[in-house]
Structure of TetR/AcrR family transcriptional regulator:
Amino acid sequence: MTEVRRERADAARNRRAILEAGERLLAEYPPEQVSMERIAAAAGVGKGTVFHRFGSRAGLMRELMVERAHALREAVTDGPPPLGPGAAPRDRLLAFLDAVVDVVGRNKGLLAALGETVTASCDAPDDAREQHSVYGFWHGHLRALIAEERPDLDAELLAHILLSALQNGPVVRLLGQGEAQRLGASLRLLATGALEA
Amino acid sequence: MTEVRRERADAARNRRAILEAGERLLAEYPPEQVSMERIAAAAGVGKGTVFHRFGSRAGLMRELMVERAHALREAVTDGPPPLGPGAAPRDRLLAFLDAVVDVVGRNKGLLAALGETVTASCDAPDDAREQHSVYGFWHGHLRALIAEERPDLDAELLAHILLSALQNGPVVRLLGQGEAQRLGASLRLLATGALEA
DNA sequence: GGTTAAACTGGACCGGCGGTCCAATTGGAC
DNA sequence: GTCCAATTGGACCGCCGGTCCAGTTTAACC
């Protein structure tokens, strides 16, 4: 039984080119102006190639988001406290909120595009798939920390509410103007207020 | 100087038909499946008529939302306490949160469609226009109540965050399953926690 | 009741989107 | 070098939001 048929060299090269082109375009234009065709052109490949590798627009956005959130994910699961394991749940939660705000702040357009995806996918899919997405990971982490600190609260829903701020248009606009610190402060205020209620 | 040229009878009739068709379709299908052409067909008019009266998809959605939110708006400005003027800001705020959750819960798809509009319009427009929209009114009311109770907090941003829960996909899904009470409870928890911090 | 200007109507039409398809090309195991 | 499968890219599809305009309807005025 040989290896599972590696990805061809040119395919890997084009995959990188597509991801980088998408990243660059989303950093410069609002998501509704970044069509799949434009990404393909900017990457120097055909449209069919993009869909062959990523399946759909939502698939590409998901991969982009996974890339951007990778460092945070590792810091949470394996890194040092207060973000990683070891600190008190309350401290981990506050540190995580700041870190998430930071990631979103440095990728304004991307989260918006992902938000549309999340919203649209809420009509049919099984909840299991959500667990593998970036949103699912963020939500699961928040929920676990809240539940650990205050098992009597509705951690599931509170986690959704805290994250939903990051999909709100006016809030994201503020983030784009460098107000990340301000958003972090208000989110921490809400979180601590709920935990101490 | 005579009256300002009333709307013609057939135009008024078609306007009603379009609004009712849109309302009906949005109640039954997710917003991305409700195209302007479908609304026109369901209302028994041509597509051009719809665009003539409402300008754009966003315009239609805005009008629909204004209709749905009309009762709440009046209750807030002229109705009895605790929703209307007279009660303590804190009580008005909690009552308002419940009322907003109720409106959104009975109009699942509509807010989602409006959310896309709000998000998209965040790239160019002056903030003044936002004041006239339903979102603008809700946000302004919340902000004023928070500021009145706790002038030291970031009322502007906190109001946005509280409202953003209503645009979050998973949260709206819960609302669609009759969990309005659960959402109201968590929002009240967050609000009271912040006010007492 | 007839005249008339303006408001309204609706369907053909437009560019662009996400997504599909498949003939031609390319890579790499042997 | 051979050969098969993975990959490629652009033509193509149906649909969308939005525009246009020739024809129709309304209602104000005489």
